[in-house]
């Protein structure tokens, strides 16, 4: 199969269907724009399993994504889309770069979910950009930005509730969107502990990539725990349906 693209944590392959690609999750992980590199065995499979369960839940809640089906142990078939070069970040609780920028402590509950756009360009370190900048430099028009905000906030509502049922606080997350050949905008890329901040409600422990960024250790244990709780959620749901 032809490799179309290799990123820091995934590879994208062509398939026999031009509308469909195969997304393979790698065991590697990076932080700070790949200045820090690591990996652990089984990470690709964990993130593939987590992402597919989240896409499945989102679909049930009416949010369409590029996800089609899982393939093998660490890949999934997805609809081929053209990625809009914006990283869309939603924040419920102050943490990370915005806490640093504002000079405030992490953990403050924000008065409303913040939606922020970052220009997806590794060479520039994915800088924060304003709506006007995105429009002026033709990254997206105003209507698209509005659509991305509405979709990102809807995803936030669904995920916040879902994680709460798993005893996890959804602090913030990053999503990417893509356009199909028909022009529809779909949730794309992945939603995994690599691109979310997840704090255990009881213990406050971090269950996401901050364990790697901040050298907290036990990253595999916590990624497993996120998957375990997601799978339990599946069981509760199907039990209730019976
Ligand atoms: P930040 O606080 O570093 O701006 O990150 C906000 C959220 O977005 C956090 O959950 C991690 C995620 N994120 C990515 O997935 N990729 C990135 O390149 C960055 C900077 C953040
Ligand atoms: N995802 C980015 C990287 O791979 C930044 C980060 O997550 O800290 O470097």
Keywords for this entry:
14 strands; binds aspartic acid; alpha+beta; 32% strand; single chain; five-stranded antiparallel sheet; binds thymidine-5'-phosphate; 242 residues; seven-stranded antiparallel sheet; globular
| First and last CA, distance | 42 Å
Order of helices and strands: EEEEEHEEEEHEEHHEEEHH
Q: What is the assembly state of the chains in this entry?
A: single chain
Rg estimate, integer Å = 17 Å
Structure description:
It is a single chain. This protein has helices at 43-60, 96-102, 131-136, 142-165, 210-213, 219-241; strands spanning 3-6, 10-14, 20-25, 28-31, 36-39, 67-71, 75-79, 82-83, 86-93, 109-119, 128-129, 168-179, 185-188, 196-200. The model has no long low-confidence stretch (mean pLDDT 96). It is 34% helix and 32% strand. The protein contains 6 helices and 14 strands. With 242 residues, the protein is of the alpha+beta class. β2 (10-14) and β3 form a beta hairpin. α1 runs parallel beside α6. The longest helix is centred in the middle third of the chain and has 24 residues, at 142-165. The protein is globular and about 45 Å long. The strands form 3 sheets. Strands 8, 9, 10, 11, 12, 13 and 14 form a 7-stranded antiparallel β-sheet that branches. It has a 5-stranded antiparallel β-sheet with strand order 1-2-3-7-6. The site of thymidine-5'-phosphate (TMP) has 12 residues, from α2, β12 and β14.
Fold blueprint:
Elements: E1 3-6, E2 10-14, E3 20-25, E4 28-31, E5 36-39, H1 43-60, E6 67-71, E7 75-79, E8 82-83, E9 86-93, H2 96-102, E10 109-119, E11 128-129, H3 131-136, H4 142-165, E12 168-179, E13 185-188, E14 196-200, H5 210-213, H6 219-241
Helix pairs in contact: 1-6
Bound molecules: thymidine-5'-phosphate and aspartic acid (ASP).
